[in-house]
């Protein structure tokens, strides 16, 4: 049988700055606000970015949240302690200055972390990232190990009853029951996000649930990076374009 041709990739328009007027703005971190780094701790958040986000949050009457696969603790270490946060793909939440609302770390995550270290110890370039309630296996430094890493991750997930979260050169194991879409839905039901139009900006496949949730609630997704089949309605080329767009938004919002 002949192969079915895939539909063409969408040609996403750039988002107009006025789109941010009245927005409840949800921002991914890695690959959106900061470039993807070779190692999980190789990311730097500069003061200009924090100042830009603070100015935008003021213009939006507080309706700005960081929604990331990173843990709340790590996001705060990066300088986001004064922002509304959803971490670990919607499993953790924290208001500025408040303790995180998060499930306990499962013993199964510790068992997976040990197995990941055994795998990484014999494969240079593979890294294990310990998070508050999850653990990630990065193979950006060893792309040839991606298939084996995926097999291991899915095997351990089935063995321990965990969810596999695939990302860019990464497999993460965590409890199930949440994603960035559920984070958007939850935050839109409460202050300060309630009443705004949800706009979600992200780059990874893990952000697709966020795009879909924003669209279902009457808003839009903005994809950062190369075109792909997506729930997003708009696109920006790269991290620098995101920062430029957010700066335009600050100027556009009255």
What is the number of E strands? 11
Query: What low-confidence regions span 5 or more consecutive residues with pLDDT below 50?
Result: none
Cα(first) to Cα(last) distance is 58 Å
Write down the overall geometry: globular
Helix count equals 7
Let me know the largest β-sheet. Answer: 7 strands, mixed
Strand content: 15-25%
What's the SSE pattern? EHEHEEHEEHEEHEHEEH
| Rounded average pLDDT | 94
Radius of gyration: 18 Å
Strand order of the largest sheet: 4-3-2-1-9-10-11
Proportion of residues in helical segments: 25-40%
Which structural category fits the helices and strands? alpha/beta
Commentary on this structure:
The protein is 33% helix and 19% strand. It is globular, with a radius of gyration of 18 Å. The protein is built from 7 helices and 11 strands. β2 (64-67), α2 (72-80) and β3 (84-87) form a beta-alpha-beta unit. The longest helix has 15 residues, at 107-121. It has a 7-stranded mixed sheet with strand order 4-3-2-1-9-10-11, sandwiched between helices. The chain has a 4-stranded antiparallel sheet with strand order 5-6-8-7, covered by helices on one side. The model has no long low-confidence stretch (mean pLDDT 94). The N and C termini lie far apart (58 Å). With 254 residues, it is α/β, with parallel strands linked by helices.
């Amino acid at each position: 049988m002949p192969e079915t041709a895939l539909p063409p990739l969408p040609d996403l328009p750039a988002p107009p700055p006025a789109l941010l007027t009245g927005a409840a703005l949800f921002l991914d971190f890695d690959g959106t606000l900061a470039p993807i780094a070779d190692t999980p701790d190789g990311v730097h958040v500069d003061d200009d970015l924090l100042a830009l986000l603070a100015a935008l949050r003021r213009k939006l009457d507080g309706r700005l949240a960081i929604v990331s696969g990173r843990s709340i603790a790590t996001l705060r270490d990066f300088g986001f302690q004064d922002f509304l946060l959803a971490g670990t793909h919607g499993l953790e939440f924290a208001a500025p200055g408040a303790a995180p609302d998060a499930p306990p770390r499962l013993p199964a995550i510790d068992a997976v972390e040990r197995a990941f270290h055994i795998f990484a110890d014999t494969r240079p370039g593979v890294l294990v990232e310990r998070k508050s309630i999850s653990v990630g296996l990065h193979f950006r430094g060893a792309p040839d190990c991606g298939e084996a890493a995926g097999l291991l991750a899915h095997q351990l997930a089935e063995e321990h009853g965990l969810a596999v979260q695939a990302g860019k050169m990464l497999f993460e194991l965590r409890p199930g029951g949440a994603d960035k879409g559920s984070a958007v839905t939850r935050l839109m039901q409460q202050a300060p996000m309630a009443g705004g139009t949800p706009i979600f900006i992200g780059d990874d496949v893990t952000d697709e649930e966020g795009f879909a949730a924003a669209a279902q609630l009457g808003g839009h997704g903005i994809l950062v990076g190369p075109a792909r089949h997506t729930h997003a309605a708009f696109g920006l080329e790269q991290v620098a374009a995101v920062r430029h767009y957010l700066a335009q938004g600050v100027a556009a919002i009255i």
